[in-house]
Amino acid sequence: MKFVKSLSAAAAVAAALAAHPAAAQSWETLGTSQSVVTTASPAKAYAAVAKWEALESWCPAFVKTTIKSGAGVGSVREITLKDGPSFTEELLWADASALSYSYKIVESPLPLIDYRSSIKVSPAEGGGAEITWSGTYRRRAEKPGKDNDDTAVRGIVDGLYKACLANAKAMLDGK
């Protein structure tokens, strides 16, 4: 899977960068937003993508979610990719009545920092639901190469969002 290979390369780059003091510097804020429309009701779609304790249930890039501390807003989870690296994320807010939640990455093997993301479900025009996943982040590299420049970092996040949302749609639409 091309996305998983990209994450492996990014994790290796991030590890190398972490050893340098300049790695903590950051640059332009980047953003990603992807949406998908499903035939499921908004409530059913939100129930599927709001599983903080089980990201792998709808996002195929991950194989395991472990709650490290807390419950609900403020809880911290560790999510593990298929090829091994893990992330630590904190739930910033959740509003089931608004069908949305937001979180941030606390620790990550990727060449990015200041990552904050939200997932929102809304009624789709003509019926069903639209799931939108949006995030902002900055790359972490003083002298980026092609594996960790803005385009590469944006590509990693875009790839994750697209793969996970496509899988959520397939699950919800029964395909």
Name the average pLDDT: 85
Q: Could you spell the SSE succession in H and E letters?
A: HEHEEEEEEH
The helical percent reads 25-40%
Shape: globular
Task: Furnish the topology, listing elements before pairings.
Blueprint: H1 2-18, E1 29-38, H2 42-49, E2 62-69, E3 76-81, E4 86-95, E5 100-107, E6 112-123, E7 129-139, H3 150-173
Antiparallel strand pairs: 1-7, 2-3, 3-4, 4-5, 5-6, 6-7
Helix pairs in contact: 1-3
Structural notes for this entry:
The radius of gyration is 16 Å and the shape is globular. Helix 1 (2-18) crosses helix 3 (150-173). The protein is built from three helices and seven strands. It is 28% helix and 37% strand. The model is unreliable at 1-26 (pLDDT under 50).
Summary, kept brief:
The protein is α+β, with helices and mostly antiparallel strands and 175 residues long.
